Amino acid sequence: MQIVSALFVENFALRQAPGPSTRIDLTGAFFSFAAPSPVPVIIDPHLVVLIYCPLTEPGNSLLEVIFRTGPGSEDEQLARNVSPFTVEPGKFTYRLVRGELSIADYGQIFAHCRVGAGPWHLVPLTVLPPVDSATNPH
Q1: What does the domain layout of the chain look like in residue ranges?
Q2: Interior angle at CA 47, CA 46 and CA 49, nearest 5
Q3: In this structure, are strands 121-128 and 32-34 parallel, antiparallel, or unpaired?
Q4: Is the dihedral of CA 73, 99, 60, 4 positive or negative?
Q5: Which of 6, 64, 86, 118 has the greatest number of C-beta atoms within 10 Å?
Q6: For 90-122, what is each residue's pLDDT tens digit?
Q7: Is 89 helix (H, G, I), strand (E, B) or coil?
């Protein structure tokens, strides 16, 4: 199995299309955002991971996501999620992972994602200082 895509998103929805076929509507994909308050702060970004299972594989595996302070396996672990899943061979599935992350400094964090013991797929997220509404009115 392999990860086709992994993105931080504000929202997603599934809908049926002719065929029958399924559509995934992803909205608000992002790679950076302003923290809701000054650090230290807890954030809870939503990560959508799309996974494909070839016809030759059984369709049962684990999705592991480790949120780290950097791109390396030695970087500090902020959170970890492991979830089993089943997908029909030849089809796709998705997993929504919500990390509750305690952030001490602004900068990049990385979601390290893999299926089973497969290769790691990294998704960066930059946490920016909060926006001051007095100097940046909407």
Answers
A1: 2-128
A2: 150
A3: parallel
A4: negative
A5: 6
A6: 999 999 999 899 999 999 999 999 999 999 999
A7: coil
Under CATH, to which class is 2-128 assigned? mainly beta
Q: pLDDT tens digits, residue range 45-86?
A: 999 999 999 999 999 999 999 999 999 999 999 999 999 999
Distance set, CA 81 to CA 2, 53, 64, 107, 114 (Å): 18, 20, 6, 22, 11
Residue 107 falls in which region: left (phi positive, over 0), alpha (psi -120 to 50) or beta: left
Distance CA 125, CA 7 (A): 10
CA distance 111 to 9: 13
DSSP, collapsed to helix, strand or coil, labels residue 28 as coil
Q: Name the amino acid, one letter, at 65.
A: V
Angle at 15 between CA 9 and CA 17, to 5 degrees: 130
- Strand locations in 10-133 (E): 11-17, 21-27, 32-34, 41-43, 46-52, 60-68, 77-86, 92-98, 101-103, 107-115, 121-128
